[in-house]
Amino acid sequence: MLACPECGAATAVRDDCLCCVNGHHFDIAKQGYVSLLTGASTKMTGDSGDMLAARAAFQGEGHFTPIVEAAAWAVTESDTADSGRTILELGSGTGYYLASVLDALPTARGIALDVSKFAARRAARAHARAASVLADAWRALPIRDATLSHVLSAFAPRNPDQVARVLAPGGSFVVITPTARHLGELIGPLGMIGVDADKDARLAEALSTRFTLHNRTLVEYPMTLGHTDIANVTAMGPSAHHAAAGRADRLAALPDRLEVTASVTVAVHRLR
């Protein structure tokens, strides 16, 4: 599935190296990922090691289990045979969502793609049937044309033209986005970044030239979080550095256990 980022040719693994027929080669890092970032430095800032550690800790507590179950269902309900499923996760972070989908599909294969080295290292350990690739989702994806059955984006970047290019005919783009109610009980007290209520509508419009909306499912439920959980959920995403000063004091003022809303949409978009 991987393409050479220099020339677009097919690649193969040889002696801890990813190589193409035109002689370009990319070493596989000892941590298990391959960097396919080339050319000028990317302008994207990947998640830090601390952000990834907080995300792994929060995900490990199972608070988002209903969301990953919905993502797995969105992939498995496809008409594509299990043996033919090939799944790319954009902005994969820890690889949590991709690994959960692969667990539900015993013969499927996956690629975790992220611009952060910390994420690439974690994703390399996420699942035996997933490759980990360091690349910029906003550039040309280092994936061969029409080779994937599914692309997954969970709270992550979306590049519609590139996603359309790498999906095979009949392929699906599964997108998980937060609603305005997601973590709503924490946004004010902890100064977190809120979600625009029109986010879903803007997403649908952005994808409309290349995709049609197949279905959209609301996943919403209460989570009971302690202070450690709340500290992790605020530190794992875009709010990590927003209004961070004094957050520890504001967190300490919250009840020991707080009911917090998880609210996302899981949308399946099909190629036109």
Detailed description of the structure:
This protein has 272 residues and is of the alpha/beta class. Helices cover 29% and strands 29% of the residues. The protein has nine helices and eleven strands. The strands form two sheets. An eight-stranded mixed sheet has the order 4-7-6-5-8-9-11-10, with helices on both faces. It has a three-stranded antiparallel sheet with strand order 1-2-3, with no helix packed on it. Strand 6, helix 4 (117-123) and strand 7 (130-134) form a beta-alpha-beta unit. The chain is globular, with a radius of gyration of 19 Å. The chain starts with 10 loop residues before the first strand and ends with a strand. The relative contact order is 0.16. The mean pLDDT is 91.
Short description:
This protein is of the alpha/beta class and 272 residues long. It has 9 helices and 11 strands. β8, α5 and β9 form a beta-alpha-beta unit.
Instruction: Tell me the Rg in angstroms.
Output: 19 Å
Range of helix content: 25-40%
Largest sheet: 8 strands, mixed
Strand composition percent: 25-35%
